[in-house]
Amino acid sequence: MDLYDAIRRRRDTRAEFSGEPVAADVLERVLSAAHSAPSVGMSQPWDFVLVRDPPLLETFRNHVSTEREVFAGSLEGERAETFSKIKIEGICESGLGVVVSYDPSRGGSAVLGRHAIADAGLYSVCLAIQNLWLAATAEGLGVGWVSFYREEFLASLVGLPEGVRPVAWLCVGQVSSLPDVPDLERFGWRHRSPLADVVHENRYGAS
Amino acid sequence: MDLYDAIRRRRDTRAEFSGEPVAADVLERVLSAAHSAPSVGMSQPWDFVLVRDPPLLETFRNHVSTEREVFAGSLEGERAETFSKIKIEGICESGLGVVVSYDPSRGGSAVLGRHAIADAGLYSVCLAIQNLWLAATAEGLGVGWVSFYREEFLASLVGLPEGVRPVAWLCVGQVSSLPDVPDLERFGWRHRSPLADVVHENRYGAS
Question: Using an 8 Å Cβ cutoff, are A141 and A173 in contact?
């Protein structure tokens, strides 16, 4: 698929998972794309835990349901009403969760490019996630990033070692289709802004 | 360009900038790709400050030189020797710095998906950076992410408002070519690891 098509067609997927398994060779290409991302000092500080065990998926889904209620409880009026219609995860329906984590010990004792910005390693992990997401889109898969969880819960669920931080739970799976319009726009939660609003010349605020 | 080709050909560019200006329509497509990235709660919390003013570029380049010395001073023996040969930035040669920043106030008072993970907004900014990087690659441009700087210095240089955090300085420009092998590998700093090393099944450490 053309790069710009993949960027345009990529969606955050919740409701469209069919539950059919992802073929091993397809998943390998998608994970290889993630693993080809740039990383600070070539530290490649990411890991991918592929969660397919149904009890693990259900346990995580139940935790996310609880966190959904926490967020819902913070909303009032129109926001509460709008949020109540939005599906936030397809954890069990997708059949595959990819937990992406960050290991700051990766890359040796002196990571080139990280001495002044400790978070640079975390940034690298996100670049890998976007490669994964675009590759999945090109393969006809859906990806839904779930962030309604507590990091310590997820770290414990998949047994991350001390110091390794979970960055994302990605629902990855076959889909019936990908929606044209993002869910949050379709349900009236938010609308996309024009590019000109976020571009500045030489100084912030100057156009 | 095919997505997988863009992922494979993308390089972190330092030495190959030709200094020719980037056409406005090309830059618009590249920034639009970034602005099409997914973001937590559709908050689109990024900004792009396009720095082309030569004195600003030189000021930043000088700051980065100082930080290079800080890092070099932490190294010994073979590491110091290997690092001494590696070019870490093409700030003036590229002629264009794209400062990408994170504004946590974007997206309203309750950002859907951020109540449990404060860094989720920062993660979104990195997804936009990867879209930008791949689009630039497809357009035949080079991108070099410079992270040898102090955040407060860069924030002040381009006038970021209080609370807006710089995430990256990207050198973006025309290039003579993109190297086949990443610089850090070519110069013997690090080598890429096999995918199998970072993939786990259900639990970290299980294959």
Answer: yes
Give B95-145 pLDDT, tens digit per residue: 999 999 999 999 988 999 999 999 999 999 999 999 999 999 999 999 999
Radius of gyration of chain B (CA): 18
DSSP string, A31-54: HHHHHTS--GGG---EEEEEE--H
The answer to whether B31 and B79 are in contact (CB under 8 A) is no
Q: CA-to-CA distance for A87 and A76, rounded, in angstroms?
A: 18
B183-194 pLDDT, tens digit per residue, is 999 999 999 999
Sheet holding B165-174, edge to edge: A199-201, B46-51, B97-102, B165-174, B141-146
Eight-state DSSP code of residue A105: T
Report yes or no: A173 and A17 within 8 Å, Cβ to Cβ.
Answer: yes
In single-letter form, the type of residue at position B146 comes to: V
Beta strands in chain B (DSSP E): 46-51, 97-102, 141-146, 165-174, 199-201
What is the rounded distance in angstroms from the CA atom of residue B97 to the CA atom of residue B175? Answer: 14
Q: Within the 63-92 window of chain A, which residues sit less than 8 Å (CB to CB) from chain B?
A: 67, 70-71, 74-75, 79, 83, 86, 88
The single-letter DSSP state of residue A75 is -
Which of B56, B110, B113 faces A148 most closely, judged by CB atoms? B113
Per DSSP, the three-state class of A176 is: coil
The pLDDT of A93-117, averaged and rounded, is 96
Partner-chain contact B70 A182, CB within 8 Å: no
Q: How far apart are CA B186 and CA A55, in angstroms?
A: 45
In this complex, the residue of A32, A159, A189 whose CB is nearest that of residue B195 is: A32
User: In A50-188, which residue ranges form alpha helices assigned H by DSSP?
Assistant: 54-72, 77-84, 91-94, 120-138, 151-157, 183-186
Question: Rounded to an integer, what distance in angstroms lies between the CA atom of residue B65 and that of residue B73?
Answer: 12
> Using only C-alpha atoms, what is the Rg of chain A?
18
Question: Cα-flanking dihedrals φ and ψ of residue B202, to 5°?
Answer: 70, -40
Strand partners, B201: A50
The string over A79-105, giving b where at least 16 C-beta atoms fall within 10 Å of a residue's C-beta and e elsewhere, is beebbeebebbbbebbbbbbbbbbbbe
Identify the bridge partners of residue A174 per DSSP, sorted by sequence position.
A141
